[in-house]
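Morning F.,

Quick status update on the modeling queue. The single chain you submitted on Monday has been processed. Sequence for confirmation:
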Amino acid sequence: MKKITLAIILIFFAIVGVKSLYSTNTFATKKLENTILIAHKEILGELEYGKVLFKHQNHIEALAKIFNKPEEAMCRECHLKDRYGNYLFDFLNINMSDSQKFKQTYHRECLSCHQKLSAQGQKTGPEILLCRGCHKKEYDKLEIQYPFFEFDFALHDKHIRKHNKDCSLCHHIYDVEEKNRELALIYEKGTEQSCYYCHDFTKKRGPELAKVVEVARKRGLNIKKACHLLCLNCHLQNKTLGKDAGPIVCSKCHTEKYKTVSELKDVPRPKMDQPNITLMYIEEAKMKGVSFNHNLHEQSNKTCRGCHHERLKACKECHDLKGKKEGGFVNIITAFHSYSSEISCQGCHRKQINKKECMGCHYFIPSVKTELNKDCSRCHTGEKLKVREINLEKNKIKEEVLIKHLEKDFEPVKMPHYKIIRKLTDISNQSKLATYFHNTLDTICRGCHHKSQDTAVKQKEPPPCVSCHGVEFDVREFSRPRLQAAYHGMCLKCHENMKLEKPKKCTDCHERKLKTNVYN
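Structure tokens below.
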């Protein structure tokens, strides 16, 4: 009886817990546009009465209506300006070092404003210190996370054209060498780079950039604050002057809508004197230079930071043959060839081929090759190369291949040889990455004829599977499957990785033989 009672209690709490979990998540994930949670636990610690849900846009619209002024003029009611005339978007620029004064300022300013409006007969919020009037219990577990804002190449191009290519409006840097330690912002043409380099505190920076990042950190200018300070003030100033301006409302920027790489393909990229095609090489290196199509890489990425993770400089300025301080002592070989890094050439390429279109063949290709001399020469040509598509000549390729080595129980398989090669070639030609590496039809053929060596194969006549894989298992070659396993392992795994619907059963490829009754 005790066990039954205990089980009922556990089920009850499980149901209540699940209900509470889902109700909290449902509320937390509601689309609360232009709404801010006021908690400041980093200053106040654990809150006695929980968080405050502050409807920012509602306050702006209400104040604009009461004072009969445009919405952009209402910022001054809660936000002070710095000496340059820019709004500081912390509440009244409160002293965050004193938690008690911090809390008192919120209570004093908010309640006094409500009381003042109430005395004027205006509809307003709580007027006296009823804690739960603002600190409602249902807000305790509420989290509001705005989707990140992506300043893509299309928006960048729009700003360039709107502001007549005046880069100094946005791009600046701290003059860390200035002796008076004022550390004023300066602009130097040719040094333009992403805001993230100086204001993203989650990334470790090299010694040169670390000095600038430290200044931004001491001033509390993380990427969120820096962007709000710069962008919102510019938009507000333009609106005040009656000019066409960008949004000043949270939901207009934080839309959770992002352009794809293909949508940005034809948008002009920022010009930093980058060549379309260049030869990457290192002085005193033993290997030949690598042809690098900068233009194609720009069209294949949404941001320059995919490669230029520290600054918009050539890789060899931070990475050399031995590794130096500026590059975190990562040498050039590791910087370009590390499979575990998404910003290295090989690491990024490896990530790109983990798609269903590519994994039909690349599933069988190990990450680390042993044919080093052959693999190196594919990139280290010492020449600037152009991407060439594979030209498929139908009359030189077998239309169909009859596989009849397993005829005991099934009819021969009619493999649509040309159709398969046509499909793989089309996939390759649609990808600039694939087109560079699959520069001949032989490369496509190696997807199936994976062990064929150039020096041992007659031209355009790769050997069939049975040349290596026997009908019976060879006990001396444990790593080599028998013929049936080789066919099924290669074909079925390719279909599975490429998400092809067929085959789902044996007879999708080969009909079962009809066995006659030997006693009739």
